[in-house]
Design goal:
It contains eight helices and ten strands. The chain has about 280 residues and is α+β, with helices and mostly antiparallel strands.
């Protein structure tokens, strides 16, 4: 049963890339020379591009956008803020989105890349969630369900700041969907503000990072009771999953926490599994 769930997880199709139209529209705004920027007008211009693209692609009945709002500033430079916030609602779905942007990390190219990547991820997640909601609605009606009895699928896309000081920023973008918990996704970003670069487990633990992190995770699993160990997949090698792309974040206790998504190393009942593997200095 557990292995069947694992196969189901592995078979989830990776969403296709966004259209070139979306990429070009966003990138053109981000690539404008700084000397020509009027900050309020430029931000409004980029927000308008996103709004037009979302409305056109999603073809929704109601789209409500709010003006962007600032959230905590980190140190004297870096900040993460709500770049755009909107709701989409019709008979099949209720979608809530908060799109974050990051700025002043000391590396303009990195900022552009991260902001563009986040925008693309959120755009594609909304697009795919809407398709699933329409399919679920059609299946409900075709099997005898009444339109007034259908419960719209709820999709919530948001971000959370996990850690911040003058040296590091750690945050995530998450999506939760009521249709199927297997569609829950998290995207983590960890930035070294002194170097202006995204850092990985290898950057922190060195060339032996795979062995070090694996041993610390296994040590924690060894303390679990039999009920919790029962959910683990039997054919999983933890070390194979510890790569430079491994998801992690920094928590409020200055700990580096490695994250495994639902169905990645254990049955769905185990949920998302997290393992503190070290402390930052």
């Amino acid at each position: 049963m557990k292995n069947e769930l694992k196969k189901k997880y592995d078979s989830i199709e990776i969403p296709k890339n966004l259209s070139n139209v979306v990429d070009e529209a966003i990138f053109k705004e981000l690539e404008k020379p700084k000397k020509h920027w009027n900050i309020p007008k430029s931000i409004a211009s980029i927000a308008a591009v996103f709004c037009i693209v979302f409305i056109t692609m999603l073809n929704t009945n109601k789209v409500f956008a709010t003006t962007m709002q600032d959230v905590p500033v980190f140190g004297k430079l870096c900040r993460i803020f709500t770049f755009q916030e909107y709701n989409i609602e019709d008979k099949t779905k209720k979608i809530k989105v908060r799109l974050p942007h990051i700025e002043n990390v000391g590396n303009t190219d990195l900022e552009k890349r991260i902001n563009l990547e986040i925008s693309k991820i959120i755009n594609e997640e909304v697009k795919q969630a809407e398709i699933r909601a329409e399919e679920y609605y059609d299946a409900f009606i075709s099997t005898g369900g009444k339109e007034e009895d259908f419960m719209p699928i709820e999709i919530d896309i948001d971000y959370e700041i996990k850690y911040s000081n003058k040296k590091y920023v750690s945050f995530l973008v998450s999506k939760f969907e009521t249709l199927a918990s297997a569609y829950q996704e998290q995207y983590f970003y960890n930035i070294d503000l002194e170097s202006g670069k995204v850092f990985t487990l290898k950057d922190w633990f060195g060339s032996d990072y795979k062995q070090i992190v694996t041993e610390r995770i296994k040590d924690q699993i060894s303390t679990w009771d039999d009920d919790n160990k029962f959910y683990l997949f039997e054919d999983i090698e933890i070390e194979d999953l510890i790569t430079t792309d491994r998801s992690f974040y920094i928590n409020k206790d200055n700990q580096i926490v490695v994250v495994f998504n639902k169905y990645e190393i254990a049955a769905g009942a185990a949920g998302i599994l997290e393992f503190p593997v070290g402390e930052i200095s």
